[in-house]
Amino acid sequence: MMNIAVAQSGGPTCAINASLVGVFRESLKEPSIDAIFGSVNGIEGIIGNHLVDLKSMILTNDDIELLKQTPSTVLGSCRYKLPDWREDEEVYKKIVKTLKQRNIGAFFYIGGNDSMDTVNKLSEYFSTIDLYVKVIGIPKTIDNDLCVTDHTPGFGSAAKYVACTMHEITRDSTVYSMPSVTVVEVMGRHAGWLTASSAVLHAMGETAPHLVYVPESEFSLENFLSDVRQEMSKHKAVIVAVSEGIEVPEGVQSGVVDNFGHKYLSGIGKYLEDIVRKEIGCKVRSIELNVMQRCSSHLASKTDIDEAESIGAAGVRCALSGETGKVMAFRRISDMPYTVVIETADAYEIANNEKHLPKEYINSAGNNIRDFALSYFLPLIQGELNPIMSQGIPKHFAIHESVLK
């Protein structure tokens, strides 16, 4: 008999708890697994031996279904960068102490590129000290920028929210007779997947978003103003989708960085709003979608949530088969009918790397997404959940705060 531990890390999503459900449900089926521990605040919980017994908290099938629909990370998250064990072994010794004390034979880390760096470092270190603990990465990120995998859990729901919100903004912006420009700022540090997903509205016959700017295409303020003027000659209300990560002058964004050296980005929408107001002089507003993109579970994609659970379960089967240092990944077989299979990839292939939006998805002017690219996005946003409601709003599963302290 062995115990397992699972943790969640990085930015929350609508689907990260569904992957936790996948790990939990699959582990319940396995006679060789006894306790299922949740590590509080990612790898920090393992370092500090702060684990909770998930079997004592997730008691019924109703609990499981509610958790599956709950956004954010129920176990808490972190942005902790493990040092190289060759340079600083102390933190690794703390991790090993916890794992041995708790009789943990497998550790599952649900996260993005930086979390897969942790998976890679831990699996490497354990092999050098002959510690038989399997380490498996379960992917997640709304940015969809993990290499190898076709897409990441969390992205489909975020894309659905962005597209739905853009659709509603489009309706709202057309009610007045005066010309207007609306700039919608979408998350995406270096990869424009989420911003590009707003173009799925074109598959419905919408002309909006009329302009789409992503980090993979060179951004020019002069060209932007020319693009806006050209679209204003055709449309009363111009809708612009812009990634937070496009290149802008110094000082527009904060410049503050996290533990992995990533800049905190926001402000491009407001910056472009001011430019349009000054140079064109029309009615203009900017809208920063911000964290709503990753926590709006009432608009979650059923495809995304179901896949998130499936890939979590596959991670358990992978560990039980004896593999370690692996990350679960989707491989797409076809767009129509939409078909994917779950495979494994080596963690070092994914850790600290980024997958960018293909250049061929972007039109020659660098200001919109080509129609053929929509077949990539559309399957990922399909299906709706039936939210479990209370007092007119969706219910969420929560572990009591005192347990997480």
Please provide a written account of the structure:
The protein has 2 domains: 2-141 and 298-352 and 385-404, Rossmann fold (3-Layer(aba) Sandwich), CATH 3.40.50; 155-295, Phosphofructokinase domain (Rossmann fold, 3-Layer(aba) Sandwich), CATH 3.40.50.460. Helices cover 34% and strands 19% of the residues. The chain is built from 14 helices and 13 strands. It has a 7-stranded mixed sheet, sandwiched between helices. Strands 7-8-6-9 form a 4-stranded parallel sheet, with helices on both faces. It has a two-stranded antiparallel sheet with strand order 12-13. Helix 1 packs across helix 11 (302-320). The chain starts with a strand and ends with a helix. The relative contact order is 0.18.
Distance between the termini: 29 Å
Class from secondary-structure proportions: alpha/beta
CATH architecture designation of the largest domain: 3-Layer(aba) Sandwich
Provide the helix percentage: 25-40%
How many domain units? 2
Descriptors:
Rossmann fold, seven-stranded mixed β-sheet, four-stranded parallel β-sheet, elongated, 2 domains, 34% helix, alpha/beta, 405 residues
Write the layout of secondary structure elements.
Layout: E1 2-8, H1 16-29, E2 33-39, H2 43-47, E3 51-53, H3 61-69, H4 90-101, E4 104-111, H5 113-128, E5 134-139, H6 155-173, E6 180-186, H7 193-197, E7 211-213, H8 221-232, E8 237-243, H9 268-279, E9 283-288, H10 292-295, H11 302-320, E10 326-335, E11 338-346, H12 347-350, H13 374-377, E12 389-390, E13 393-394, H14 401-404
Parallel strand pairs: 1-2, 1-4, 4-5, 5-10, 6-8, 6-9, 7-8
Antiparallel strand pairs: 2-3, 10-11, 12-13
